[in-house]
Amino acid sequence: MSSKRYLLSLALLAFASLALAQTGFWANTDVLWRSGSTPSTGVAVRAGVSSPIDDISNFEVTEYLDWWNFRNENRKQKFNNRVQLGYYYHDQELSWGANYAATAFGGAEAMLINYEWVDGVPDVKYRKQFMHQANLDAEYRYSILKTSGELNLRLLDTEPVQVWGDPIEGLNNYLYDGYSHAELGVNPISGLNIFGAYDYKNHPMDEALHGRTIDYDYSALVLGAIWNKKLGLNGHFSLSETWQNRDWDAMLPEHRNQLISELRLGYHLTPDLIASGAYINRSCFADAGEPVYLLSNYARAQVQYVFPNDLSAGSYVLLGAKIRPANDAAFHPDTSAYFAEANYRLMPLFYLGARVNLAPEIQDEYRCRLSYRTDPTSEIHLEYIGRKSQRTSPADPDYHSLIGIGTEVHF
Amino acid sequence: MKRKVILLSILLILLSVFACRQLTHTEYNIDRAACNGCTNCSAVCPSDAIYYDSNNKAIIDQTKCTQCGDCVAVCPQNAIY
User: Fold this and answer.
1) What is the value of ipTM here, to two decimals?
2) How far lies A182's CA from each of A113, A136, B13, B46, in Å?
3) pTM for the whole thing?
């Protein structure tokens, strides 16, 4: 782990927190005790600082920490801590942002990353230790033209672990992925944007792995159109159709061309009742004239009612569903989920919340939370989470529960 | 206006029906509008296939993804499909 860089990030976080005026701060902290197959203790922290520099730019620092004394619930590490610093600029014609994220990992398991099967088994695994990511994005609008670009550069510092074959000398610790996106669009009429884009991912091959025949570079040509429409004062509607022509070494031929159809709706039925919906279909085909295959169908709808008698808007009921049938039930589960959530002010300063998330082929989750609000945006809470996971075996589901105590602070 | 919306919606549904041949494999993707950037998905991904863009929205790198579905179970927003 590159501890110097990590400490530098933390120092920058502290500096930014102290140096910037008019700073907004938020933090959610939870301590959780897990019972069930692997009793364990965890801490989760989500915190951020945001400060406007002037009317059109701001600076942000965020901190995400997850620590557990055991790797559980499929986590691939006991500990990960992500610190991100970002600068964002936005005016009428130009908007751009730059940020850097440093993530430290602890107690990570060795994973198959960018692997190739050699004699029937993968040869090298990698244990994550530290990750640097730099992001840059910009968008420029001029008259009916819009151009944008994005760059995401990741450098993952790992400990390579050879699991098979003759010893490989000089395995590289660093795995690099560079993602780039360039887009040019035109708005011939209000609300309609026709665009073309190019995506490219660069993954240099480890020279020590000279026997490999595939790499993990990626490229895609994208053409599409999106139509946005306001529905009176209370709603919006968008419809888009995108075609992607993609290429990477291990890609199945049928995945080469993908059509993405997307429909979104949002509507305030009354000032307190909001409904929204989305539908996305992904279909693919190898070449023109070849059969078209279904890749995924996804529909989502939810309705939220905010109780008008609670002026802090902390009392609400939300009902929703995500429908995503299995592509082929023999190979993948149906990932549909049905969810309901409510939070209600029992008495001044005390709220009772509940959430049910039922995904019949994945996991059912039940949550209950009692909160004491110290002001309209800050609280101390006690939480119970119960889960029945179907993923290990539907005949023998994994039951476990968590009890947590936490705080939410905004100022 | 309403008629156009209905017609376009029908066209989309027809496209779904037309593309009725199913593959034994699939692709997982993330509904950007629903993602809250919580990082749960990347914490469980066994092939380091999830990264975050400039807006802290998770993206699945299809060149690395093995379609294990581990990320689906931990997404609190049900944003992975």
Assistant:
1) 0.90
2) 27, 12, 30, 29
3) 0.89
